Amino acid sequence: MTEWLHPALIMVFGAALLPMLHDTGQKVASVLVPLLVLLRMTQMDVGSQGQVQFIGIDLVLFQADQLSLVFAWVFSIMAVIGNIYAWHINDTGQRVSAFLYIGSAFGVVFAGDWFTLLVAWEIMAFASAYLIFASANRKAVAAGFRYLMVHVAGGVLLFGGIVLHGVQTGSYLVGPLDHGQGGLAYNLILISFMLNAAVPPLSAWLTDAYPEATVTGAVFLSAFTTKTAVYVLIRNYPGAEVLIGFGVAMALYGVVFAVLENDCRRLLGYHIISQVGYMVAAVGMGTEMALNGATSHAFAHILYKGLLFMGVGAVILMTGRRKLTELGGLYHAMPMTVVLYMVGALAISAFPLFSGFVSKSMIISAAAGDHRAAVALLLTVASSGTFLHTGLKLPYYMFFGKDCGLRPSEPPVNMLLAMGLAALFCIGIGVFPQLLYDLLPYPVNYHPYSGAHITQSLGLLMFTLFAFVLCLRYLDPEKTISLDTDWLYRRGAKLFMWLALHPVLLWEKMVVTLGDGAGLRMLHRLSRASQKADTHFVDAVVNGVARMTWRCGLLLRQFQTGVVSHYALVMIVGLIVMLVFPLIAALAAP
Amino acid sequence: MIARLVNFFGDDRYKRLRWRLLLLMLFLIVLADVLVPRPHVEHVWDSIPGWSAAFGFISCVAIIFVSKFIGHSCGIMRDEDYYD
């Protein structure tokens, strides 16, 4: 019986239960349900369940293999941590949408067919959008609509690709897309996956929307959407070489934009893009080690990025400020937050003994082992940039640097507890990498803790620190925003409105004026002319015919005497004529 | 304990000590990189001692200046009310 209990179902039932509970009951349930999912994960095994036929298509609602299990593990861990972090909020809507969001992420990683995946994919977009709307200010609502618009467009592309793929192959089961490589179906699905993985130029939705989400909502957002996209890329596009270039470009793109950024969470958003770049590039390489690297880095990433968003969220909650130019000198007031944030920062930067060290290096080694020297070097540049921003720039200007004068207290205990748990995982994975390696889809033959790897990593990172200290004054954040590809639809929308308000409206006015003026006058004339024609011609003909019929009737009446002997005479005369006429004709004939 | 640790990194009184510690660490890391055995290297540069240190330093400087240059000269950085 229990093998039928899909983790997504537990989350959805939980989401239905939450509104019936109040205060403490709801808070307890919000942590207990994810714990139940975690318990369920311990009994999960590879295999598939729930094969059904729907309008002649084979659906597989639940399919677990090593790859889906490792993603489900980290999703359930993050579900527990995220809900502990959100314990203090009193917003049923946010809790329910977070539950549905997490549940649908489980739906994607366990989907055995494309339609189940599509349905879960769409629910994920809508449920996550609520976490942005819940900020309930004008900017957030606008960003939420933009987020939804982009994801709905992505969903349409996915749907189109799935239908085309199904028609071409006759199968709707997920798996590596070898058929029609480079064809329309292949590309449509790939583009929709790249959109959710925030691959530039389809990445602006992330840095547009995540900073506007609620403090607790952003923690969930940072964990699930891009990582389910990484999962579906690993599952369906392993070895798609086009992804290598995109991956490396996005790793560097995130780094460049992070230098320019002033908003704390937008800066972290650019580093999601940068880190997902490593995973996307690894999927493109497609070797077993690279796919292991992508999977393990996604696992580590969810936990350290969650921790970073929690740390910054704590600062935003306690100070009400989110810009680096308005923060600084908080280290006196929030030392616990500083330390916990720094654990996440050291993990993302891949310091030895932290989780990034055992996962990120696997991808770079896979690139080197696959004789892709340029990829390995460029990803190493991005590693330096990662430490520069999340490990140095952000904490320096947020916690140290120029004192902003604020003296907030530490965040609520539940937030510190959640951050502590995430920090524990970041260190645990770094110290005991085998625990993570045992979960990976392929056997691991990689030992991160070699002497040379440690000294090289420390050299790279500490000299990045040295350069940071020397160049500090050039790095001061500025009160600006950075234009990204969302410019196209944000300014594009303005252009659309201008078009609607000017040329289109002008045309409409012209048509109306024409109709009311010249057009109407012409119509009047036309109707008068047709009335005249009706009176003088049609009516005259009809009256003429009637009058002629009447006269003929009068004429005929004179022949009708009503006397039988007259009628008999006419008949006899007629008879004689009929008889005599042929006779004369016959005689006259030669 | 944690507060004291964090205070060490923030308080100006320890600035000189922090510098000394940093330079000492940098020296030790380069020294270790020279001494560490390299039984197997993928690329030529991996066998050069101190390579990654130089690479990290140059990368960081390049990232800062190239990014700021792109941001300022390509019209990417705009006023905060640009979209309003």
From TrEMBL, chain A:
Cellular component, GO annotation: plasma membrane
Subcellular localization: Cell membrane; Membrane
Membrane spanning residue stretches: 70-89, 96-112, 147-164, 184-206, 213-234, 240-260, 267-286, 298-318, 330-354, 374-392, 413-437, 457-475, 564-589
Annotated GO biological process: ATP synthesis coupled electron transport
The keyword Phosphoprotein is annotated on this UniProt entry: no
InterPro entries in the record: ComplexI-like_HydComp, NADH_UbQ_OxRdtase, ND/Mrp_TM
Its job: NDH-1 shuttles electrons from NADH, via FMN and iron-sulfur (Fe-S) centers, to quinones in the respiratory chain. The immediate electron acceptor for the enzyme in this species is believed to be ubiquinone. Couples the redox reaction to proton translocation (for every two electrons transferred, four hydrogen ions are translocated across the cytoplasmic membrane), and thus conserves the redox energy in a proton gradient.
Record protein name field: Na(+)/H(+) antiporter subunit D
Organism: Parasedimentitalea huanghaiensis
TrEMBL record, chain B:
Domain of life, per lineage: Bacteria
Residues passing through the membrane, by range: 21-38, 50-70
Entry keyword Membrane: yes
Record keywords, A-Z: Membrane, Transmembrane, Transmembrane helix
Name assigned to this protein: Uncharacterized protein
Organism: Parasedimentitalea huanghaiensis
